[in-house]
Design a protein that fits this description.
heterodimer; A: 122 residues; 5-stranded parallel beta sheet; 5 helices; globular; B: 442 residues; 6-stranded mixed beta sheet; 9% strand; flat; transcription (chain B); DNA binding (chain B); DNA-binding (chain B); Lambda_DNA-bd_dom_sf (chain B)
């Protein structure tokens, strides 16, 4: 069984690069690039892992995470948060809302792979 | 350690340094020259008021005379060592160090003071990063682009046997992103350069007063209880008299509003709203105003003055409020979550706040979407009302109010407005007055 990941991010070139390295690593990758209906996309696709950018068009990643943690089916879903503002307050906010892991841009491909594989074991 | 017996020597040393004659100093503090002479030769004890007087005439701190500059230096050395315990400075030998190497000791003390000042400056700059939306937007852009380039470049280097189509695609992405990065980096440099000039506005009286109001949550229990503005301002330390005068005006207005519409009456009116009106959307200030027999502007100003507990109980969310005068200058600002207000420069001309000026006293209710990364939806109520009593041939001092409620996303697409042109991503906007620093919207 392939592990599935849903990458929710709005920078097309980041989507392409992260999507590429994850699929080379054996993940099945789906992408989504706006915040408004991200929760719906997660509920429909039921991925093993969600990689979620904080700054999304339409809706903040924090709001999406809050909904996920409140939802019955997604309360324990591994969520890796990405942000381009490595500020302590973003990190605290992510932790308080129940993010499984937090990563500040710029990150390396190896870090993303390591985090993804640590959150969902092959 | 210099003992108290050497006070006289220090007085003499200091007096010689400022080139004052013994007789002159003696006369100024009301003692005889011969008595001062005895003191200076440590043959008479001195303390109390006489010491304070002599210190004042010589222009030094009394402690400088009673304990010596060395004591102050030793204290600073101890402070420096406490600030950096890992260095392992031998605290117990601080006075020996200051005594044997006074020059080096002063260097350490001065550097300690300098580090303190630099740390404060860094803190102010960090604060700027958190509160300057222009700088934050530029930085975000640069970091995202760097991430994309970094990731694509690593793939090209690290992936063995990459298909030519993929290789070409990543090459193209890097090329595009590097152009974006060059542009973004230039904007960031411009922003940082502009920071120098902006220091002035950062500390402007308006900023200082805004910070004061934000810290108080725009709510002053003393004023609600009928207290005078002076009571609220007595304990506050403003940097400039202009800021104090401005704060006096703002707080005075809050006090007047509080007297005209006490919080209990507003709370009753909110409680009395029909279920659907008080539901998930923020209440309509014109409905409340009619019910209370006051102007909608007053209701808006009072809604943002509700203390947290009442806000939590009676309102669906904390509202934002901006008030502008006829020049478009924002006089009062309170942010609603997700609707940031421009800190520098003017706001977006598409705000209903400004439309309100075209028909004074005509309330506007408009739902809108805020262009930007979060694209939040908001319900706004705007109205322009006279600030002055109406008199023939006198300017009524119109002030436009715009109350901002965070709202749910709607099926219909509400008009999209920005915060301010510089950070607005709207690509085609007939009202744009300056280019955006957002790379893709530029």
């Amino acid at each position: 069984m392939d592990r599935t990941v849903l990458l929710i991010e709005d920078e097309p070139n980041i989507i392409e690069a992260i999507g590429f390295i994850l699929s080379r690593d054996g993940w099945r990758v789906a992408t989504h690039s706006n915040g408004v209906d991200a929760v719906g996309a997660i509920e429909t696709r039921k991925p093993d892992l969600v990689i979620l950018d904080v700054m999304l068009p339409g809706r903040s990643g924090f709001d999406i995470l809050r909904d996920l943690r409140a939802g019955a089916g997604t309360a324990d879903l591994p969520v890796l948060m990405l942000t381009a503002r490595g500020q302590a307050q973003d990190r605290e906010m992510a932790a308080a809302l129940g993010a499984s892991r937090f990563m500040a841009k710029p990150f390396s491909n190896a870090e993303v792979l390591e985090a993804a594989n640590a959150l969902v074991r092959p | 350690m210099p003992g108290s017996g050497l006070i006289g020597s220090r007085i003499r040393e200091r007096r010689t340094m400022v080139a004052m004659r013994q007789a002159d100093l003696a006369r100024k503090v009301g003692i005889s020259a011969s008595y001062l002479n005895l003191i200076e030769h440590n043959r008479r004890r001195i303390g109390g008021k006489l010491l304070l007087d002599i210190a004042a005439v010589l222009g030094v701190e009394p402690v400088h005379l009673s304990e010596g500059a060395e004591a102050a230096l030793v204290a600073t050395l101890r402070e420096a060592s406490a600030a950096q315990p890992t260095a392992g400075a031998e605290v117990e030998t601080a006075d020996e160090f200051a005594g044997r190497f006074p020059g080096w000791a002063r260097l350490v003390a001065d550097q300690n003071a300098r580090i303190g000042r630099l740390e404060q400056a860094v803190e102010a700059l960090t604060d700027r990063l958190a509160h300057d939306p222009h700088l934050a937007a530029s930085l975000h852009e640069v970091l995202s682009t760097v991430t994309a380039i970094h990731s694509s470049a690593s793939i090209l280097v690290e992936t063995r046997e990459i298909e030519p189509e993929w290789r070409d695609r990543f090459h193209r992405n890097i090329h595009e992103d590097s152009a974006r990065l060059a542009e973004g980096a230039q904007r960031l440099v411009d922003e940082l350069d502009a920071g120098q000039r902006r220091e002035v506005t950062l500390n402007s009286p308006q900023d200082e007063v805004d910070a004061f109001l934000d810290a108080a949550g725009h709510s002053f229990p003393a004023l609600e209880a009928g207290g005078r503005p002076e009571e609220v301002l007595a304990e506050v330390d403003f940097g400039t008299t202009a800021a104090r005068a401005l704060a006096r005006d703002r707080v005075g207005r809050i006090a007047t509003d509080a007297a005209r519409l006490p919080l209990e009456r507003l709370a009753e009116a909110l409680d009395a709203l029909p279920e659907d009106a008080a539901g998930r959307e923020g209440p309509d200030p014109t409905v409340l105003a009619e019910h209370l027999g006051v102007s909608p502007g007053l209701v808006m100003r009072r809604l943002v003055a509700l203390p947290d507990d009442l806000q939590d109980r009676l309102l669906p969310a904390a509202p934002g409020l901006v008030i502008a005068d006829a020049s478009g200058t924002l006089l009062y600002r309170r942010e609603a979550a997700g609707f940031s207000l421009p800190r520098y420069g003017a706001a977006c001309p598409l705000w209903p706040l400004f439309a309100a000026f075209t028909r004074p006293m005509f309330p506007i209710r408009q739902r809108l979407r805020l262009a930007g990364r979060s694209e939040g939806t908001f319900l706004t109520h705007a109205v322009a009302e006279p600030d002055q009593a109406l008199r023939a041939d006198a300017d009524p001092g119109l002030r436009a109010h715009m109350l901002i409620w965070p709202a749910d996303h709607d099926e219909e697409e509400p008009p999209r407005v920005g915060v301010t042109c510089r950070i607005c991503p709207r690509e085609t906007c007939a009202s744009r007055r300056e280019p955006s620093i957002m790379a893709r919207g530029a």
